[in-house]
Amino acid sequence: MIPRIDLSDLRIITNHFSDTHKIGRGGYGEVYKAVYKKEEIAVKLLDSAKEIDDKQFMNELSNHMKVQHPNIVRLVGYCNEVTSEYIEQKDGSSVFGKHIYKVLCFEYMHGTSLDKHLSGNSLGHDWPTHYQIIKGTCEGLCYLHCGCERPILHLDLKPANILLDKRKNPKIADFGLSRIYTTSRTHVKVIGSVSGTTNYMAPEVRKEGVVSDKADVFSLGVTIIDVIGGSGGLETYREHGAKKFVEYVHIGGRGIIQQIYIK
Predict the structure, then answer these.
(1) Which domain holds residue 125?
(2) Range with lowest mean pLDDT among 160-169, 174-183, 206-215, 223-232
(3) Where does ATP bind (predicted)?
(4) Which residues fall in the annotated binding site for ATP?
């Protein structure tokens, strides 16, 4: 069973969620680096300014607890607490206001997110590394769809939600979090509480709000194109087509597409 971590403990290990511990901010909230029970962890503080579906949050937390796969980021603990906090208003008066803390704690990934590697071209021209990332991402998504008791849809698969460890092995993160928000400024609303990122969204999701495992496969395909073609790979693919895209990858100096023999 994944343990509940007290808010008081989270405040201590993040120095009250200070900027010195902050390592990033995504569409779902801010992320802090901390050490808990001698393990480095990533503390994801979900955005309290957005309306969160509490029932869906518990459902997604339950999904995270059941998932165990080498290509899925491991959940370390969680927190779901309500506090009464002293708030100073614009007119100078003060009141006690309710603040809801919903926190998910994951293993810390030293390799950061895939999108940062793609934008900085830090993966180089080593095809085995690119292939390792593609293969691991495929296996992680296959596990979510076919290896769990009930299929789990990610609905926001993209390089920013694929984290790399020290050896550049990929691990899928943030699966299902797109469902817990009833409103969102940084994501495109498609149906109910489902949101995503436009470039990686399947046409049927974007236009009709039809969600299925095929939508994740579409996002996976776009992600693979990005891994092969670098940041902006999708635009190049759409502009020139598949054949020209392959030529672009070779001529452009990346030279990572090679024949592979799979044993």
Answers:
(1) 114-251
(2) 174-183
(3) 44
(4) 44
Which residue matches tokens 């693979």? 224
Q: Is residue 16 part of a domain?
A: yes
pLDDT digits (tens, 9 = 90+) for 23-79: 988 777 899 999 999 999 999 998 876 777 777 788 778 888 889 999 999 999 999
Tell me, yes or no, whether 45 lies in a domain: yes
Which pTM does this prediction carry? 0.81
Chain CA centroid to CA 29, Å: 11
The catalytic position among 156, 174, 216, 226 is 156
d(CA 83, CA 44): 18
Q: How far is CA 115 from CA 40, 55, 207, 232, in A?
A: 22, 31, 26, 11
Task: State which of 84, 107, 130 marks the end of a domain.
Answer: 107
Binding residue ranges: 44
Cβ–Cβ under 8 Å, residues 175 and 144: yes
- Domain of 92, CATH number, reads 3.30.200.20
Active site residue 126: no
